[in-house]
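Morning!

This is the sequence you dropped in the shared folder:
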Amino acid sequence: MTNNGQSSVINDRYGAGLYADRSVSIINNGDGTALVVSPTGNRTVKAEPLPKAPRVGRFPSIDAAKPIESCGTVVTLTDGLLLPPSGTLRRG
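The structure's back. Tokens below.
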């Protein structure tokens, strides 16, 4: 998927995909047809399937995402998080 803030392009890797901007959307079904949607109307047209996108492959590992050993974890909560604004708990 590519999105530059003005338009978006999606290639599903199998011949189908989507192009969209502020005035038109083109949905390529990957079967030789595409749906064009615009303010002036919608219509189905002939369209070649999109070329298959190559596989991305494996990404390198990220050291920051590796688990670390820990002998304990401290969680600190403020009393405002545990009690309602009145400061008292009601039990029904």
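Headline: The mean pLDDT is 82.

More detail when I'm at my desk.
O.
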